[in-house]
Amino acid sequence: MDASKPIILYDIASGPPVTCFAPNPWKARYALNFKGVNYRTEWVDLPDIKTVREKLGIAPNRTHSDGSAFYTLPIIQDSSTGDIIGDTFEIALYLDRTYPNGPTLLPPMTVGLQAAFNIQVDAIFSQHVILCVHGMPLNPETAEISKATFAQRAGKESWEELTVRGEERVKTLESLKAALDGLAKCYRQKDGLFLEGDTVLYADLIVGSWLAFYKITLKEWEEVQTWHNGLWQKLHQALEKYAEVK
């Protein structure tokens, strides 16, 4: 790879100091760092994501519940090849295919299984994301626009409805813990911290990306770290070597 032509990672900008916080961009960032490829970050404010995707010619790869287009990040733009990829799983496949000399994210015989795993893990954490919404470090300059957009997406009248408090919050946390039981069992199938023992796969980075998001946004993160014999804390810490923000 030409060091003078780094991959550009388009990521969602937080409030200052700008850093990565959203789970899907974390997946791409973990993958890029894991592969050891040269890249830099282009930060995009939430209200500007649609414009950026359209400018790059990348169609939305998701839809809202009403069927309308859902414009989101990450995107990578590979200056060495001219390729532009706008889906997290496709980014991982692309990195393995284009840069095979580094460690492998998705061994060929595991691609289908890891794709299914990605869907399942996303579902577990997404179903409980109401715990995290008010903890997102939005850019103050565009926060009101972003809050209105999130409320509209969720079918709520206001940002204040996008949270849970009191007993409802306690029950939602209990639900999250129960939902993670099955995932924790997957991590107990082999000796070692990762799903394949001592070998990191993209599947571990998927889980790690959600943990990174929850750490930033969930006020009960200290409690979550203790669940399942401290598994989530250990996994998050073990993946920090791939969490550099460039």
From TrEMBL:
Boundaries of every GST N-terminal domain copy: 12-103
CDD domains: GST_N_etherase_LigE
Lineage: superkingdom: Eukaryota
SUPFAM superfamilies linked: GST C-terminal domain-like, Thioredoxin-like
Pfam families, alphabetized: GST_C_7, GST_N_2
Protein name, per record: GST N-terminal domain-containing protein
Organism: Aspergillus tanneri
Lineage of source species: Eukaryota, Fungi, Dikarya, Ascomycota, Pezizomycotina
